[in-house]
Fold this sequence. Notes:
Elements (H helix, E strand, L loop, with lengths): L2 H10 L7 E4 L5 H14 L5 E4 L2 H10 L12 E6 L3 E2 L5 E2 L6 H9 L1 E9 L12 E5 L4 H10 L4 E3 L15 E5 L7 H9 L4 E4 L1 E2 L5 E6 L2 E6 L2
Helix pairs in contact: 1-2, 2-3
The structure holds ribulose-5-phosphate (5RP).
Ribulose-5-phosphate binds next to helix 4.
Amino acid sequence: MNLKKMVGIEAAKYIQNDMIVGLGTGSTAYYMVEEIGRRVREENLTIIGVTTSSKTTEQAKRLGIPLKSIDEVSHVDITIDGADEIDEKYNGIKGGGAALLFEKIVASYSNKIIWIVDESKMSRYLGSFPLPVEVIPYGSHQLLTLFEKKNLHPVLRIDSDGQPIKTDCHNFIIDLHLEKIEKPAELSAWLNQLPGVVEHGIFENMVSTIIIGSNDGLKTIQAR
Ligand code: 5RP
């Protein structure tokens, strides 16, 4: 059973005519975007999509989903996205696909946020998935040294050519291998005030609904 496809198709059912829809990024969100594309084509669903990465923009354009940027809409009705890890309080880590900045911006203006995951992403605490931090290249080595000194186990994310990966905004990603994040709010506040840090992957108190796929079927949680 393809769990990512299952949750992607389920989440697309939440979309109704005339909605402005945030379209997430990643291998799970991929199936949701494909299904919305199918509904646009076969059911004449009329929506405006707001994408969270160049990759999703490419896919949505190929499917004929009408798009606007976040600056061209007054709000977003629903955003559907994947997540890398979700804790017991329904806080999440995102950014495994390096799209955390646009994902957090679009999520911030969304009336409802749905995360689609398989059950392996559910965890007691955050931190077993390395926390992505998006940083501007200038000063990034200073940040690596600072994170090292603070025992945050930073690793600069590298592409297949051995070069630092570049986000859609031409920034770098530093992954913090923390194992367990005791106080996500404190870590989030500390990271947010560091010059050169653009965004990080802790998404606190944001998700409304989580759709979890397992071999036993689908489970939907109302988080808030
Ligand atoms: C991209 C993300 C993705 O939503 C997250 O990495 C989950 O991806 P996948 O569905 O491929 O496991 O945050 O920045």
